[in-house]
């Protein structure tokens, strides 16, 4: 169940981080839409997409296992997350099947397409050499495609619906080879996978659209560095726009996709050619701002998630009956100094000792591990009531358990070994104290009970 909870947490936190960055850049991006910063816009939309793919916040939150006990499983948490994960899994399977059906149909058509002649293949090789593309890319004729496009990652193909004039072919091949050089199809396939996983997030459709149109604009910018006739290049695109495009933008990279995107591309190229001052400085500043926002979001959402999860776990934890007065006797306290060599890992609960206060707990603890509360200041003569039961979920529970209090100097007052551990521990001097439980055995223990701080007895 822990693995399922972590998968759910990763999806939730990636959705949160990706959505925040999407909303931020959607607002800020409008301010510099026509300022000519093509490369920075494309890069940032890639960053937004990656925030959905990489569970950065979950990795950060997992680091809190050193300072708080994350992912404790309670009955309500188990049921709610279980139901949500079933719904998510069903939706992911449905959207994945739909995508694979479209991909399979396109692939079948392309595999049956006719290869072009040696003259056209030689032309592609010549342009590839000029652009620094070392992969051999085959050109095929597929009339039903409707327009020129690039397909495939491992075995890329340039698809032509018909044979164009030599000058047009030069522009088409340059455009498609630049797409390959920019790895645009890899980004599109990654976006498709993310859209299947996060099918419930409508904003991803716009992220895909933004990534696609900025990718096309970035391709245009690079193409115009190699082709002197910019007007002729866009005239070719306009001519192709009159043809009916059969395959969409989801699995291919084409010279033309829609009139709206074409208009945007031409406007952005005009802005790029007109404004060249301070581009690098502004690009660095915008990137730095996105990095700061990402780091802040990761930090805030990570801490917020850990605290919220811990609070829900505390509130939904079942109360444990550790016995009634008369059938369990208080154990005599023992004393020792804290020795970190006894344990492999120590986790700090998000709880602090306070006078006339306490909490119930259900803590799962592995062998040679230790759980502690945060420090709280206690006066000399204060009493800490401690009760724990190790046998409420198992027939043969781990009984080699120590539970007690430890002061700021590492001196421990504790009781140990037994199915039921109950005692009243007296604070011997003023100072800062923590409640701890330590598994000294060889198997995982589940301890349920409570601790309570009293100033008088």
UniProtKB/TrEMBL annotation:
The UniProt record lists the keyword Transmembrane helix: yes
Q: Where is the Peptidase M56 domain?
A: 80-267
Q: Where, if anywhere, are coiled coils annotated?
A: none
Q: Which UniProt keywords apply?
A: Membrane, Transmembrane, Transmembrane helix
Q: Which residues cross the membrane?
A: 6-25, 37-59, 79-100, 282-306
User: What InterPro entries does its record include?
Assistant: Beta-lactam_resp_regulator (IPR052173), Peptidase_M56 (IPR008756)
- Which CDD domains does UniProt cross-reference here? M56_BlaR1_MecR1_like (cd07341)
What's the name of the protein? M56 family metallopeptidase
């Amino acid at each position: 169940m822990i693995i399922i909870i972590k998968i759910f947490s990763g999806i939730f936190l990636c959705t949160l981080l990706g959505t925040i960055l999407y909303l931020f850049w959607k607002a800020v991006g409008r301010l510099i839409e026509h300022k000519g910063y093509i490369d920075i816009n494309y890069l940032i939309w890639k960053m937004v997409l990656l925030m959905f793919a990489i569970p950065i916040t979950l990795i950060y939150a997992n680091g809190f296992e050193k300072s708080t006990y994350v992912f404790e499983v309670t009955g309500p948490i188990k049921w709610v997350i279980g139901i949500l994960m079933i719904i998510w899994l069903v939706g992911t399977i449905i959207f994945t099947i739909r995508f694979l059906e479209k991909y399979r149909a396109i692939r079948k058509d392309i595999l049956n397409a006719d290869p072009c002649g040696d003259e056209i293949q030689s032309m592609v090789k010549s342009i590839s050499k000029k652009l620094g593309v070392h992969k051999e890319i085959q050109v095929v004729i597929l009339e039903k495609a409707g327009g020129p496009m690039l397909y495939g990652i491992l075995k890329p193909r340039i698809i032509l619906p018909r044979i164009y004039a030599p000058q047009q072919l030069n522009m088409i091949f340059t455009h498609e080879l630049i797409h390959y050089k920019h790895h645009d199809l890899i980004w599109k396939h990654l976006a498709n996978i993310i859209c299947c996983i996060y099918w419930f997030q409508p904003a991803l459709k716009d992220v895909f659209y933004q990534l696609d149109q900025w990718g096309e604009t970035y391709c245009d910018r690079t193409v115009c560095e190699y082709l002197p006739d910019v007007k002729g290049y866009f005239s070719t695109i306009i001519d192709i726009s009159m043809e009916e495009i059969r395959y969409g933008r989801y699995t291919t990279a084409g010279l033309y996709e829609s009139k709206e995107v074409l208009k945007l591309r031409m406007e952005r190229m005009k802005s790029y050619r007109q404004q060249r001052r301070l581009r690098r400085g502004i690009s660095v500043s915008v990137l730095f701002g996105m990095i700061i926002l990402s780091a802040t979001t990761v930090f805030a959402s990570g801490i917020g998630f850990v605290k919220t999860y811990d609070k829900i776990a505390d509130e939904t934890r079942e109360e444990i009956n550790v016995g009634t007065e008369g059938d369990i006797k208080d154990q005599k306290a023992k004393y020792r100094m804290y020795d970190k060599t006894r344990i492999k890992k120590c986790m700090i609960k998000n709880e602090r000792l306070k006078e006339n206060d306490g909490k119930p707990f259900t803590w799962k603890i592995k062998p040679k591990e230790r759980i502690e509360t945060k420090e709280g200041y206690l006066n000399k003569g204060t009493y800490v009531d401690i009760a724990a039961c190790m046998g409420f979920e198992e027939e043969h529970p781990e009984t080699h358990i120590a539970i007690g209090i430890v002061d700021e100097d590492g001196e421990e007052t504790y009781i140990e070994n037994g199915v039921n551990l109950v005692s009243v521990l007296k604070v011997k001097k003023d100072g800062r104290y923590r409640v701890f439980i330590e598994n000294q055995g060889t198997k995982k223990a589940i301890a349920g009970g409570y601790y309570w701080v009293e100033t008088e007895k």
